[in-house]
Amino acid sequence: MKNIPVVFKHGVSYTTRFVSKLPRCTDIPRIDHKGKDALVWNLSLSRRSKVDKSDGDDKGKDKCAKDAIADRNIIFVAGLGGIGLDTSREIVKSGPKNLVILDRLKKPETIDELKAINPDVNVIFYPYDVTAPLKDSAKLMKKIFGKLKKVDLLINGAGILDDHQIERTIAVNFTGTVNTTTAIMPYWDKRKGGPGGVVANICSVTGFNAIYQVPVYSASKAAALSYTMSLAKLTPITGVKAYSINPGITKTTLVNKFNSWLDVEPCVAQLLLAYPTQTTKQCAKNFVKAIKKNKNGAIWKLDLGCLEAIKWTKHWDSHI
Ligand SMILES: NC(=O)c1ccc[n+]([C@@H]2O[C@H](COP(=O)([O-])OP(=O)(O)OC[C@H]3O[C@@H](n4cnc5c(N)ncnc54)[C@H](O)[C@@H]3O)[C@@H](O)[C@H]2O)c1
Q1: Which CDD domains match (predicted)?
Q2: In terms of domains, do 156 and 17 share one?
Q3: Which of 1, 201, 207, 283 could lock onto 221 through a cystine, CB 3.0 to 4.6 A?
Q4: Is 14 noted as a catalytic residue in this protein?
Q5: Pocket-testing residue among 155, 203, 252, ligand 1, by greatest number of atoms within 8 A of Cβ
Q6: Residue 204: CB within 6 Å of ligand 1?
Q7: C-alpha to C-alpha distances, 48 to 7, 15, 219, 235, 273, nearest whole angstrom
Q8: Whose CA is nearest to atom 25 of ligand 1?
Q9: Can you give the CATH number for the domain in which 206 is found?
Q10: Residues 191 and 163 reside in one and the same domain
Protein backbone atom coordinates (compact mmCIF):
# COMPACT_ATOMS: atom_id res chain seq x y z
CA MET A 1 0.00 0.00 0.00
CA LYS A 2 2.85 2.31 0.88
CA ASN A 3 4.00 3.14 -2.68
CA ILE A 4 0.71 3.04 -4.56
CA PRO A 5 0.46 6.31 -6.55
CA VAL A 6 -2.21 8.67 -5.38
CA VAL A 7 -3.95 10.29 -8.36
CA PHE A 8 -5.91 13.45 -7.81
CA LYS A 9 -8.55 14.82 -10.11
CA HIS A 10 -6.09 17.52 -11.34
CA GLY A 11 -3.95 14.81 -12.83
CA VAL A 12 -1.00 14.95 -10.46
CA SER A 13 0.27 11.82 -8.83
CA TYR A 14 2.87 11.20 -6.22
CA THR A 15 4.01 8.33 -4.14
CA THR A 16 4.91 8.46 -0.50
CA ARG A 17 8.45 7.54 -1.58
CA PHE A 18 8.65 10.71 -3.71
CA VAL A 19 7.33 12.77 -0.85
CA SER A 20 9.83 11.27 1.56
CA LYS A 21 12.64 12.61 -0.68
CA LEU A 22 11.55 16.21 -0.17
CA PRO A 23 13.72 18.31 2.13
CA ARG A 24 12.66 18.47 5.74
CA CYS A 25 10.90 21.72 6.33
CA THR A 26 8.18 22.81 8.67
CA ASP A 27 6.58 24.83 5.81
CA ILE A 28 5.85 21.70 3.75
CA PRO A 29 2.24 20.67 4.30
CA ARG A 30 1.60 17.44 6.17
CA ILE A 31 0.50 14.72 3.75
CA ASP A 32 -3.06 13.76 4.49
CA HIS A 33 -4.77 12.21 1.46
CA LYS A 34 -8.22 12.93 2.78
CA GLY A 35 -7.69 16.36 4.26
CA LYS A 36 -7.45 19.96 3.07
CA ASP A 37 -3.64 19.91 3.22
CA ALA A 38 -3.54 17.25 0.53
CA LEU A 39 -5.62 19.43 -1.77
CA VAL A 40 -3.37 22.45 -1.26
CA TRP A 41 -0.34 20.27 -1.84
CA ASN A 42 -1.89 18.81 -4.97
CA LEU A 43 -2.86 22.22 -6.39
CA SER A 44 0.60 23.55 -5.71
CA LEU A 45 2.22 20.63 -7.53
CA SER A 46 -0.28 20.90 -10.34
CA ARG A 47 0.43 24.61 -10.81
CA ARG A 48 4.18 24.09 -10.64
CA SER A 49 4.15 21.38 -13.27
CA LYS A 50 2.03 23.54 -15.59
CA VAL A 51 4.26 26.61 -15.20
CA ASP A 52 7.52 24.73 -15.54
CA LYS A 53 6.48 22.90 -18.70
CA SER A 54 5.56 26.05 -20.57
CA ASP A 55 8.39 28.13 -19.04
CA GLY A 56 6.16 31.09 -19.87
CA ASP A 57 6.71 30.69 -23.60
CA ASP A 58 4.10 30.65 -26.33
CA LYS A 59 5.96 28.21 -28.57
CA GLY A 60 4.03 27.61 -31.75
CA LYS A 61 1.39 30.17 -30.89
CA ASP A 62 2.86 33.09 -32.88
CA LYS A 63 0.79 32.53 -35.99
CA CYS A 64 -1.42 35.54 -35.32
CA ALA A 65 1.61 37.65 -34.43
CA LYS A 66 0.59 40.67 -36.51
CA ASP A 67 -2.57 40.89 -34.47
CA ALA A 68 -0.59 41.94 -31.40
CA ILE A 69 -0.73 45.48 -32.86
CA ALA A 70 -3.23 45.58 -35.73
CA ASP A 71 -6.68 46.68 -34.52
CA ARG A 72 -5.53 46.58 -30.90
CA ASN A 73 -5.77 49.13 -28.14
CA ILE A 74 -2.34 49.96 -26.77
CA ILE A 75 -1.23 52.10 -23.83
CA PHE A 76 2.35 53.32 -24.15
CA VAL A 77 3.84 54.91 -21.04
CA ALA A 78 6.74 57.17 -22.13
CA GLY A 79 5.82 56.90 -25.79
CA LEU A 80 7.28 60.33 -26.53
CA GLY A 81 10.90 59.88 -25.37
CA GLY A 82 13.89 58.98 -27.56
CA ILE A 83 13.21 55.25 -27.95
CA GLY A 84 9.52 55.82 -27.17
CA LEU A 85 8.74 58.21 -30.02
CA ASP A 86 10.42 56.17 -32.75
CA THR A 87 8.63 53.09 -31.40
CA SER A 88 5.30 54.98 -31.37
CA ARG A 89 5.96 55.87 -35.03
CA GLU A 90 6.54 52.19 -35.87
CA ILE A 91 3.49 51.12 -33.88
CA VAL A 92 1.08 53.47 -35.68
CA LYS A 93 2.41 52.15 -39.02
CA SER A 94 1.24 48.67 -37.90
CA GLY A 95 -2.31 49.94 -37.50
CA PRO A 96 -3.57 49.69 -33.93
CA LYS A 97 -7.10 50.88 -33.31
CA ASN A 98 -6.10 53.19 -30.47
CA LEU A 99 -2.67 54.23 -29.25
CA VAL A 100 -2.90 55.92 -25.86
CA ILE A 101 0.33 57.69 -25.00
CA LEU A 102 0.95 58.51 -21.35
CA ASP A 103 3.95 60.69 -20.71
CA ARG A 104 5.29 63.39 -18.47
CA LEU A 105 6.38 65.21 -21.62
CA LYS A 106 3.66 67.20 -23.38
CA LYS A 107 4.29 67.44 -27.12
CA PRO A 108 1.01 68.17 -28.96
CA GLU A 109 2.86 68.60 -32.27
CA THR A 110 4.27 65.09 -31.92
CA ILE A 111 0.82 63.64 -31.29
CA ASP A 112 -0.31 65.38 -34.51
CA GLU A 113 2.69 63.92 -36.34
CA LEU A 114 1.75 60.41 -35.16
CA LYS A 115 -1.85 60.93 -36.28
CA ALA A 116 -0.60 62.02 -39.71
CA ILE A 117 1.51 58.86 -40.16
CA ASN A 118 -1.64 56.73 -40.12
CA PRO A 119 -4.93 58.65 -39.99
CA ASP A 120 -6.80 55.39 -39.31
CA VAL A 121 -5.24 55.20 -35.86
CA ASN A 122 -6.78 57.09 -32.98
CA VAL A 123 -3.81 58.58 -31.10
CA ILE A 124 -4.73 59.87 -27.65
CA PHE A 125 -2.51 61.60 -25.10
CA TYR A 126 -2.86 61.93 -21.34
CA PRO A 127 -0.22 63.53 -19.12
CA TYR A 128 1.10 60.99 -16.65
CA ASP A 129 3.86 60.96 -14.09
CA VAL A 130 4.62 57.35 -13.10
CA THR A 131 5.73 58.49 -9.64
CA ALA A 132 2.12 59.46 -8.85
CA PRO A 133 0.44 57.46 -6.07
CA LEU A 134 -1.15 54.18 -7.14
CA LYS A 135 -4.67 55.60 -6.65
CA ASP A 136 -3.93 58.27 -9.31
CA SER A 137 -2.74 55.60 -11.74
CA ALA A 138 -5.94 53.67 -11.01
CA LYS A 139 -8.04 56.80 -11.75
CA LEU A 140 -6.31 57.24 -15.07
CA MET A 141 -6.89 53.58 -15.97
CA LYS A 142 -10.57 54.01 -15.11
CA LYS A 143 -10.73 56.96 -17.51
CA ILE A 144 -8.98 55.04 -20.30
CA PHE A 145 -11.07 51.89 -19.88
CA GLY A 146 -14.21 54.05 -19.69
CA LYS A 147 -13.31 55.43 -23.11
CA LEU A 148 -11.89 52.38 -24.88
CA LYS A 149 -13.69 49.57 -23.00
CA LYS A 150 -10.73 47.25 -23.52
CA VAL A 151 -6.94 47.52 -23.70
CA ASP A 152 -4.77 44.77 -25.16
CA LEU A 153 -1.21 45.89 -24.45
CA LEU A 154 0.47 48.05 -21.81
CA ILE A 155 4.01 49.23 -22.52
CA ASN A 156 5.91 50.62 -19.53
CA GLY A 157 8.84 52.69 -20.76
CA ALA A 158 9.47 55.52 -18.30
CA GLY A 159 13.09 55.81 -17.26
CA ILE A 160 15.69 58.21 -15.95
CA LEU A 161 19.45 57.78 -15.71
CA ASP A 162 21.02 59.88 -12.96
CA ASP A 163 22.65 58.11 -10.05
CA HIS A 164 22.64 61.35 -8.03
CA GLN A 165 18.85 60.90 -7.82
CA ILE A 166 18.63 57.61 -5.94
CA GLU A 167 15.02 57.63 -4.79
CA ARG A 168 13.66 59.11 -7.99
CA THR A 169 15.50 56.51 -10.09
CA ILE A 170 13.82 53.71 -8.17
CA ALA A 171 10.47 55.55 -8.20
CA VAL A 172 10.47 56.07 -12.00
CA ASN A 173 12.29 52.98 -13.26
CA PHE A 174 10.88 50.39 -10.89
CA THR A 175 7.97 51.54 -8.71
CA GLY A 176 6.40 53.37 -11.66
CA THR A 177 6.39 50.17 -13.70
CA VAL A 178 4.95 48.14 -10.82
CA ASN A 179 2.27 50.72 -9.98
CA THR A 180 1.09 51.21 -13.56
CA THR A 181 0.87 47.44 -14.01
CA THR A 182 -0.93 47.06 -10.68
CA ALA A 183 -3.42 49.74 -11.73
CA ILE A 184 -4.36 47.90 -14.93
CA MET A 185 -4.67 44.44 -13.34
CA PRO A 186 -8.28 44.74 -12.08
CA TYR A 187 -9.38 45.19 -15.72
CA TRP A 188 -7.40 42.20 -16.97
CA ASP A 189 -7.15 39.64 -14.16
CA LYS A 190 -8.99 36.47 -15.10
CA ARG A 191 -9.76 35.79 -11.42
CA LYS A 192 -11.99 38.87 -11.61
CA GLY A 193 -13.54 37.72 -14.87
CA GLY A 194 -11.12 39.85 -16.92
CA PRO A 195 -9.97 38.92 -20.43
CA GLY A 196 -6.22 38.96 -19.70
CA GLY A 197 -3.76 41.29 -21.36
CA VAL A 198 -0.11 41.81 -22.20
CA VAL A 199 2.56 43.89 -20.44
CA ALA A 200 5.79 44.88 -22.23
CA ASN A 201 8.26 46.43 -19.82
CA ILE A 202 11.24 48.38 -21.07
CA CYS A 203 14.05 47.23 -18.84
CA SER A 204 17.69 47.30 -20.00
CA VAL A 205 20.77 45.24 -20.75
CA THR A 206 22.10 46.83 -17.54
CA GLY A 207 19.60 44.58 -15.76
CA PHE A 208 21.58 41.59 -17.14
CA ASN A 209 25.00 42.98 -16.29
CA ALA A 210 25.32 46.30 -14.53
CA ILE A 211 27.13 49.39 -15.68
CA TYR A 212 28.66 49.33 -12.21
CA GLN A 213 29.42 53.05 -12.22
CA VAL A 214 25.62 53.59 -12.22
CA PRO A 215 24.65 50.87 -9.75
CA VAL A 216 21.34 52.49 -8.79
CA TYR A 217 20.10 52.74 -12.39
CA SER A 218 21.36 49.22 -13.16
CA ALA A 219 19.70 47.76 -10.07
CA SER A 220 16.42 49.55 -10.83
CA LYS A 221 16.41 47.93 -14.28
CA ALA A 222 17.32 44.52 -12.83
CA ALA A 223 14.36 44.93 -10.47
CA ALA A 224 12.02 45.78 -13.35
CA LEU A 225 13.34 42.74 -15.24
CA SER A 226 12.83 40.42 -12.27
CA TYR A 227 9.32 41.80 -11.78
CA THR A 228 8.53 41.15 -15.44
CA MET A 229 9.77 37.56 -15.23
CA SER A 230 7.50 36.98 -12.22
CA LEU A 231 4.54 38.49 -14.09
CA ALA A 232 5.13 36.01 -16.90
CA LYS A 233 5.21 33.09 -14.44
CA LEU A 234 1.92 34.32 -12.97
CA THR A 235 0.11 34.08 -16.31
CA PRO A 236 -1.66 30.80 -15.43
CA ILE A 237 -3.21 32.59 -12.43
CA THR A 238 -3.87 36.09 -13.83
CA GLY A 239 -4.25 35.51 -17.56
CA VAL A 240 -1.86 38.43 -18.10
CA LYS A 241 1.23 37.83 -20.23
CA ALA A 242 4.50 39.75 -19.90
CA TYR A 243 7.85 40.12 -21.56
CA SER A 244 10.79 42.49 -21.23
CA ILE A 245 12.36 44.77 -23.80
CA ASN A 246 16.04 45.27 -22.97
CA PRO A 247 17.77 47.81 -25.19
CA GLY A 248 21.54 48.08 -25.39
CA ILE A 249 23.09 51.52 -25.50
CA THR A 250 20.87 53.59 -27.77
CA LYS A 251 21.65 57.15 -28.83
CA THR A 252 19.21 59.34 -26.88
CA THR A 253 19.61 62.26 -24.49
CA LEU A 254 19.36 59.72 -21.64
CA VAL A 255 22.90 58.44 -22.23
CA ASN A 256 24.39 61.67 -23.58
CA LYS A 257 25.35 62.97 -20.18
CA PHE A 258 24.61 61.43 -16.82
CA ASN A 259 25.87 61.25 -13.27
CA SER A 260 27.59 58.21 -11.81
CA TRP A 261 26.88 57.19 -8.22
CA LEU A 262 28.93 59.37 -5.82
CA ASP A 263 30.80 60.57 -8.94
CA VAL A 264 32.83 57.34 -9.00
CA GLU A 265 33.36 57.89 -12.74
CA PRO A 266 32.84 61.50 -13.88
CA CYS A 267 33.43 60.48 -17.52
CA VAL A 268 31.02 57.54 -17.51
CA ALA A 269 28.95 58.83 -20.47
CA GLN A 270 31.98 59.50 -22.68
CA LEU A 271 33.47 56.10 -21.83
CA LEU A 272 30.22 54.32 -22.63
CA LEU A 273 29.66 56.14 -25.91
CA ALA A 274 33.16 55.28 -27.12
CA TYR A 275 31.79 51.77 -27.83
CA PRO A 276 29.33 50.92 -30.61
CA THR A 277 25.74 51.99 -30.03
CA GLN A 278 22.45 51.71 -31.93
CA THR A 279 20.01 54.32 -33.17
CA THR A 280 16.49 54.78 -31.83
CA LYS A 281 15.14 53.75 -35.26
CA GLN A 282 16.96 50.41 -35.12
CA CYS A 283 15.74 49.89 -31.58
CA ALA A 284 12.16 50.84 -32.53
CA LYS A 285 11.99 48.41 -35.46
CA ASN A 286 13.10 45.53 -33.25
CA PHE A 287 10.76 46.68 -30.50
CA VAL A 288 7.81 46.30 -32.85
CA LYS A 289 9.11 42.90 -34.01
CA ALA A 290 9.20 41.78 -30.36
CA ILE A 291 5.66 43.08 -29.75
CA LYS A 292 4.46 41.12 -32.77
CA LYS A 293 6.08 37.91 -31.42
CA ASN A 294 3.86 38.38 -28.34
CA LYS A 295 5.87 35.79 -26.42
CA ASN A 296 5.08 35.39 -22.76
CA GLY A 297 8.21 35.36 -20.59
CA ALA A 298 10.51 36.46 -23.41
CA ILE A 299 13.56 38.46 -22.39
CA TRP A 300 14.34 40.42 -25.52
CA LYS A 301 17.77 41.97 -26.05
CA LEU A 302 17.69 44.81 -28.57
CA ASP A 303 21.34 45.66 -29.08
CA LEU A 304 23.38 47.01 -32.00
CA GLY A 305 20.42 46.72 -34.36
CA CYS A 306 19.73 43.06 -33.51
CA LEU A 307 16.84 41.37 -31.73
CA GLU A 308 17.66 38.33 -29.65
CA ALA A 309 15.71 36.26 -27.11
CA ILE A 310 17.91 35.76 -24.06
CA LYS A 311 17.95 32.46 -22.24
CA TRP A 312 17.95 33.15 -18.51
CA THR A 313 20.02 30.85 -16.32
CA LYS A 314 18.20 29.38 -13.37
CA HIS A 315 20.36 29.19 -10.25
CA TRP A 316 17.60 28.41 -7.77
CA ASP A 317 14.02 27.23 -7.68
CA SER A 318 11.43 27.95 -4.98
CA HIS A 319 9.56 24.74 -5.96
CA ILE A 320 6.23 26.39 -5.22
N1 LIG B 1 18.98 54.94 -24.33
C2 LIG B 1 19.50 53.79 -23.89
O3 LIG B 1 20.68 53.48 -24.13
C4 LIG B 1 18.65 52.83 -23.10
C5 LIG B 1 19.15 51.55 -22.90
C6 LIG B 1 18.40 50.64 -22.18
C7 LIG B 1 17.16 51.01 -21.68
N8 LIG B 1 16.71 52.28 -21.88
C9 LIG B 1 15.41 52.60 -21.33
O10 LIG B 1 14.53 52.95 -22.37
C11 LIG B 1 13.54 53.87 -21.88
C12 LIG B 1 13.52 55.09 -22.79
O13 LIG B 1 14.78 55.73 -22.65
P14 LIG B 1 15.36 56.76 -23.72
O15 LIG B 1 16.75 56.42 -23.96
O16 LIG B 1 14.43 56.91 -24.85
O17 LIG B 1 15.39 58.09 -22.83
P18 LIG B 1 14.53 59.41 -22.91
O19 LIG B 1 15.05 60.26 -21.81
O20 LIG B 1 14.53 59.97 -24.27
O21 LIG B 1 13.08 58.90 -22.57
C22 LIG B 1 12.65 58.66 -21.27
C23 LIG B 1 11.15 58.63 -21.28
O24 LIG B 1 10.69 58.39 -19.94
C25 LIG B 1 9.75 59.38 -19.62
N26 LIG B 1 9.73 59.64 -18.19
C27 LIG B 1 10.77 59.95 -17.38
N28 LIG B 1 10.33 60.16 -16.14
C29 LIG B 1 8.98 59.97 -16.17
C30 LIG B 1 7.97 60.03 -15.20
N31 LIG B 1 8.23 60.35 -13.92
N32 LIG B 1 6.71 59.77 -15.56
C33 LIG B 1 6.40 59.46 -16.85
N34 LIG B 1 7.33 59.37 -17.81
C35 LIG B 1 8.62 59.62 -17.47
C36 LIG B 1 10.20 60.61 -20.40
O37 LIG B 1 9.18 61.60 -20.47
C38 LIG B 1 10.53 59.95 -21.71
O39 LIG B 1 9.37 59.70 -22.46
C40 LIG B 1 13.94 54.17 -20.44
O41 LIG B 1 13.21 53.32 -19.57
C42 LIG B 1 15.40 53.80 -20.40
O43 LIG B 1 15.83 53.46 -19.10
C44 LIG B 1 17.42 53.18 -22.59
Answers
A1: ADH_SDR_c_like (cd05323)
A2: no
A3: 207
A4: no
A5: 252
A6: yes
A7: 16, 17, 28, 12, 44
A8: 158
A9: 3.40.50.720
A10: yes
Amino acid at 10: H
Give the domain range for residue 25. Answer: 12-54
The answer to whether 269 touches 43, Cβ cutoff 8 Å, is: no
Tally of domains within the chain: 2
The answer to whether the CB of 178 falls within 8 A of the CB of 219 is: no
Pairing of strands 98-103, 122-127: parallel
pLDDT tens by residue, the chain, 320 residues? 334 443 333 433 333 333 333 333 333 333 344 444 444 444 443 443 343 333 334 444 444 445 899 999 999 999 999 999 999 999 999 999 999 999 999 999 999 999 999 999 999 999 999 999 999 999 999 999 999 999 999 999 999 999 999 999 999 999 999 999 999 999 999 999 999 999 999 999 999 999 999 999 999 999 999 999 999 999 999 999 999 999 999 999 999 999 999 999 999 999 999 999 999 999 999 999 999 999 999 999 999 999 999 999 999 999 99
